[in-house]
Every structure is written in C-alpha cells, then in structure tokens.
Write a structure and sequence with these properties.
The protein is mainly alpha-helical. The protein has one helix and no strands. The radius of gyration is 40 Å and the shape is flat. The relative contact order is 0.03. The model has no long low-confidence stretch (mean pLDDT 84).
Length: 105
C-alpha cells in the first residue's frame, strides 16, 4: 500500500514516422565562374543625427526622469520615517498607560 508503483514503459507498436526515401543526386563539376562585383551594402537603418535642439531635449528629458524618480524615492522614505515615528509614539503611550495602571494596584 505504501510502496510506490513505477509505471512500465509501453512497448512500441511500430515506427512513428515512415522512413524517408533517399534519392541520389547528380554530382556537377566545379565550373570557374567570374567573381561577382562586390555590392555596396546599404545601411540597414539610417544614421541618427543629433542637432543641438534634440540633444537639449534629451538632456532635459533625462533630467526630468531623474528628478521624478528622486521625488518618488524621497516620498517613500518619508512615509517609512513617519510610520516609524508614529509606532514609537504609540509604544511610549501604551507603556505609560500600563505603568500607571500597575502603580494604582
């Protein structure tokens, strides 16, 4: 009951795919052909030309991304700091309440 049963591999019933027919090909002799003139390959994509305006736009966009990312990270840090301070204040208040309750008894 607790022994695992290993399934047996089924025996193959036949070939899965029919055998490919191999046909002989004719062998041709090497005939000297004149070398083709080298073709000038066109670039696959056009070159990007940066004008002063586009360079300024790229710098401005990068600066904006860095500033937005900085603002988001600073706000997350402030949220964590405010949460930590509020938990600490709650702990001090609870400790004070429990200590004054113990003194009354």
């Amino acid at each position: 009951m607790f022994r695992p049963k290993v399934p047996t591999m089924p025996t193959p019933t036949g070939l899965g795919t029919p055998p490919a027919v191999v046909e002989p090909t004719a062998v041709s002799l090497n005939v000297a052909t004149p070398p083709a003139a080298p073709a000038i390959a066109a670039p696959s994509r056009p070159t990007v030309q940066l004008t002063p305006g586009t360079a300024l736009a790229l710098v401005g966009g990068g600066t904006a991304v860095v500033l937005v990312l900085g603002v988001v990270l600073v706000s997350l840090l402030l949220a964590v700091a405010i949460t930590g301070v509020s938990v600490a204040v709650c702990a001090v208040v609870l400790r004070s309440l429990l200590a004054s309750e113990a003194k009354r008894r």
